[in-house]
Every structure is written in structure tokens, then in C-alpha cells.
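PROTEIN SPECIFICATION:
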Amino acid sequence: MKASELRELSIEELEAKILELRKEMFKLRLRRLSGSLDKFHIIGQTRRLIARVKTIITQKAKKEVANG
């Protein structure tokens, strides 16, 4: 998901997205440990997407505080 698409979501939707991504990350780590994960780069992509969503949440929260 692109950052521009994420910015269109509300903070609540973004928090739900983080929960979904964390569950996915857990599943990926389990698959890596069991040896059934072929594409290890997906773990890094998911980690970066979580960070991107957190950054957008912080930006939106600061914007709301600034606007009152």
C-alpha cells in the first residue's frame, strides 16, 4: 500500500492496519523459523510498512493538535 493511500485513511483505520500487519509479521516469522518462507524480503517490507503507518499516524495526530 502506498503512503498516499495510507494518508487517506483515518487514525482508527490506520491503527487497525497496524494490528493486521503485526499479525502478518508474526505469521511470517513463524514461517521463517519453520523453513517454509521462500521470500525473506517480505519480512523487511512488512516491517517498513508498519513504520510507515506509524509515521502517518504521528503526522495526523500532530496536525489535529495544531488545528485544535
User: Anything to note?
Assistant: Helices lie at 3-7, 11-34, 41-67.
